[in-house]
């Protein structure tokens, strides 16, 4: 999970400080990287993941994050001004994992199968990060910087999806940008309802395969089914 790996990077940065290796470069410019995300985590990283995911933005404190990570409080403040900075970094990392999770899932001439795989990947990533996503949404409702960052990252994703739909909707009355936003928002809200709201309120949610099939069929029937009949 990206959050655990991010905290491992934080730990490594603190280790460099203790050994007088490296400078004062901010974590946001170096640590949340692909090379760091491939590292394995330990118990202190899992503990930090738990406190951020379970307690959310308002429940977690920088002191608790430092304690669970095995870091000195000053080490964290050397790279981040406050808790908001930490969560904003994690928000961007989450979106970079969540929305592009469908990459490389598309197989030529296998539209429905590709949609199933991309839906499966998205839902799996969302489910694995559901508690942290709930905390980020809580934060975005109260912190303007988070809401703005979340908005911009989502718009970037919608634009990418609109590009994918340019060819499929070339002769359709539907506009790619509006269609991409509508379908992507539907999937996002479904995932939130199934994996965050239902869990919180004791509701039921479909298993992964049923959920992925539902979403992929809606996409397929809305965009591709008519074109294939023509």
From TrEMBL:
Protein's organism: Pseudomonas mosselii
Protein name per UniProt: TetR/AcrR family transcriptional regulator
InterPro entries: DNA-bd_HTH_TetR-type_CS, Homeodomain-like_sf, HTH-type_TetR-like_transc_reg, HTH_TetR, Tet_transcr_reg_TetR-rel_C_sf
Signal peptide (from-to): none
Entry keyword set: DNA-binding
Molecular function in Gene Ontology: DNA-binding transcription factor activity; transcription cis-regulatory region binding
SUPFAM superfamilies, per the entry: Homeodomain-like, Tetracyclin repressor-like, C-terminal domain
Domain HTH tetR-type: 38-98
DNA-binding interval(s): 61-80
Keyword DNA-binding: yes
Lineage of the species this protein comes from: Bacteria, Pseudomonadati, Pseudomonadota, Gammaproteobacteria, Pseudomonadales
Pfam families linked to this entry: TetR_N
